[in-house]
Amino acid sequence: MNGGGPLSGLKVIELAHIMAGPACGMMLADMGADVIKVEKPDGDDSRRFLPPDIEGESAAYMMMNRNKRGIALNLKDADAVEVLRTLLDSADVVIENYRHDTMERLGLGYETLRQSNPQLVYCAISGFGRTGPYAERGGFDLIAQGMSGLMSITGEGPGRPPVKPGAPIADITAGFLAALGCVAAYSHAQATGEGQMVDTSLFEAGISLTYWQSAIAFATGTAPGALGSAHPLNAPYQSFRTRDGWINIGAANQRNWQRLLDVIGAPELQNDPRFGTNADRMTHLADLVPILEELLQRRDTQDWLRRMEEAGLPAGPVLNVSEMHRDPQALARDMIVETEHPAAGPVKTIGLPIKFGDTPGGITRPAPTLGQHGREVLGEYGYSEDSIAGLIRSGAIIVR
């Protein structure tokens, strides 16, 4: 089991695949919960997201499923369903992102499970939530990003094709929201003895990321569009070309605007009526950007970064993912961690982005191979060696 972490002792059963549900389970496991991932006989679909692989093991699967123990059950077999029921009867939390009625058809829906385990927190992650006209629809990150408005505010501007953010942010955000919901509901269950349903979706996760743009639309009646790297409410706050690349500059208030003018040597802009206030700069952003870029292209990125840091002006480079992995701050914050996988060997993963002063979480084990912990887990739940062997022979449980 995971040692340490603020959620040490929390028992979680993860019935989830690919990303949103596994992201939820990953966050709980990284904070110390004992997360048992239950897979189908051929494994989570992300095991087949190849390439890339490390010694035949899917890099995508290993990223999302570190810190978990794994068993594989054939839920078409009645004995496997009974094994799962045994696990759920003493769980604190169950996470699932199956189709709407899958658990009910197995006889393991929330209303059934709460009869034997009234403190159970049942977390359902879906495309659109458990209620409403879209409740029966399946959901994918791309679809949620489009329907939540995110793709309308991403990209370079009018007349350009729709663009989604490079990361599957509806999936990941839904997983993180679900983890927050699980912790909140578990806290309530500890205080009252009453569990509850936690219901979130990719669609709602995407909507929750439109706070600024929704505020603009509510206030003006007009939906804002894509602005590239620029901010919808502050300027200058975006990427700019330098002599050898790009730099992000956050001169989003008057003090930082003055610092920027001092660093780039453009005091004349201070008295330009087009740029006097943030509202002026937003109105005349199309005039401002080329003026700043002409000045910024006189020096290299690192030269500007040094000068801006000395001036106290928020700025940073635009790193690619591999450069980020080597960044000294990412390394100092333990955001790049290595585990030893039984099949793949040394595997790097992303660390826990939340630091706890007294109960530190972290990455203590690699992702499981398919069915790796089947015997171990069933033994903990009272199954004898003979009964486990029988379940393996019948195909109810898969151990490889």
Largest sheet: 7 strands, mixed
Strand arrangement within the widest β-sheet reads 8-7-6-1-2-5-14
CATH architecture heading of the largest domain: 3-Layer(aba) Sandwich
Mean pLDDT: 96
Low-pLDDT segments? none
Number of domains: 2
Radius of gyration: 25 Å
Number of helices: 17
Helix/strand class: alpha/beta
Alpha-carbon distance between the termini? 20 Å
CATH homologous superfamily descriptor of the largest domain:
Crotonobetainyl-coa:carnitine coa-transferase, domain 1
Tell me the β content: 15-25%
CATH class of the largest domain: Alpha Beta
Q: Examine the coordinates and then state which fold CATH places here, giving the name of the CATH topology of the largest domain.
A: Rossmann fold
Number of strands: 14
Helix amount: 25-40%
Observed structural traits:
single chain, 400 residues, alpha/beta, Rossmann fold, formyl-coa transferase, domain 3, 2 domains, 7-stranded mixed beta sheet, 3-stranded antiparallel beta sheet, 39% helix
What does this structure look like?
The chain has 400 residues and is of the alpha/beta class. It has 2 domains: 11-209 and 327-398, Rossmann fold (3-Layer(aba) Sandwich); 237-241 and 246-317, formyl-coa transferase, domain 3. It contains 17 helices and 14 strands. The chain has helices at 20-30, 59-64, 78-89, 102-105, 110-116, 141-147, 169-192, 202-208, 211-220, 254-264, 278-283, 285-296, 301-311, 321-326, 328-332, 374-380, 385-394, and strands at 11-15, 34-39, 53-54, 57-58, 69-73, 93-96, 121-126, 196-201, 237-241, 246-250, 315-317, 336-341, 345-350, 397-398. It has a 7-stranded mixed β-sheet with strand order 8-7-6-1-2-5-14, with helices on both faces. A 3-stranded antiparallel β-sheet has the order 9-10-11, covered by helices on one side. Strands 3-4 form a two-stranded antiparallel sheet. Strand 9 and strand 10 form a beta hairpin. Helix 1 packs across helix 7, helix 6 (141-147) crosses helix 8 (202-208) and helix 7 (169-192) packs across helix 8 (202-208). The longest helix has 24 residues, at 169-192. 37% of the residues are buried.
